[in-house]
Amino acid sequence: METQEFSDTFSLFHNLNTETLEWVLSMTENESYSANEVIISEDNWGKAIYLIVSGWVKLENIYHHQESITVEVTGKGGLVGEAGILDSVNTNSRITCISDVELLSISAQRFLQILYRDTQIQNRLLKMMVKRVAEYQKYCQFHRQTPKVRLTTILISLADRYGKATEKGIKLFNFGRKDLADLAQLSLEELDYIVEKLETKGLLVVESETNSLFLPNIKQLHHIIGKLGNE
Q1: What value does the CA radius of gyration of the chain take, rounded to a whole number of Å?
Q2: Residues of the chain with pLDDT > 90: what percent?
Q3: How far is CA 129 from CA 50, 62, 104, 193, in A?
Q4: Among residues of the chain, what percentage have pLDDT more than 70?
Q5: Domain of residue 93, CATH code
């Protein structure tokens, strides 16, 4: 990956000087994973961070009998694994590929060297972590919303972070039913019912052949949140 593309893709390193970008890039390793492959297992946190070049990964919490719940998904431009380097993390979590994934890894030792050397990267990482804490606090109150608002909120959030504008609307990866249901804290039956209603109203289009979701009217989805969320 060239330095300009690296800067444009990853906000943590955006618009740093060329020397710093080249130095950081020299510490990365290219890695590839297949769908359903585990990147960070429950007992393997803290060894490296991973910068997502393409594809999708999910953070799963593991419960009794190895049952899992998806609590976050990350796509191109995101990073995972930093929490395990900065502090100990609960070992009941893992990072798993949703699709084929290309990424850049930076070992824990090298990543700490980067942080010690560049205060700008330190500050950006701190802001990123604070933002995640704030998002998690909101997520803890998520169950108080109606099922339709919860799913709509998740779709809008994914569209804002990773969506691509097309003639058909905002394009997203066609996440699995279980992943979407987990993210929105819904049963599979609730998910299917709401998806059917959104499809009927032309607010959601599932294109199986390209493994894509389209949101043709994002403004109307925002309207749903405003209308139902205040009821």
Answers
A1: 19
A2: 77
A3: 16, 22, 20, 35
A4: 96
A5: 2.60.120.10
Q: Give the pLDDT of residue 227.
A: 57
Name the token pair of 122.
């330190």
Q: In what order do the strands lie in the sheet with 205-207?
A: 164-166, 169-173, 212-215, 205-207
Give residue 45's identity as a one-letter amino acid code: W
What band does 218 get if pLDDT is binned at 50, 70 and 90?
very high
The parent domain of residue 193 ranges over 142-229
Which of 118, 152, 115 has its CA nearest to residue 229?
152
Q: What is the pTM of this model?
A: 0.88
Is residue 229's pLDDT more than 50? no
Give alpha helix (H) positions in 49-141: 82-86, 108-117, 119-140
The answer on 185 and 167 residing in a single domain is yes
Q: Which of 112, 139, 166 is the last residue of a domain?
A: 139
Other Cβ atoms less than 10 A from the Cβ of 134: the count is 10
Boundary-marking domain end, from 139, 156, 182: 139
Burial 174-208 (b: 16+ CB within 10 A, else e): bbeeebbbbbbbbeeebbeebbeebeeeebbeeee
Integer Cα distance of 231 and 222 in angstroms: 15
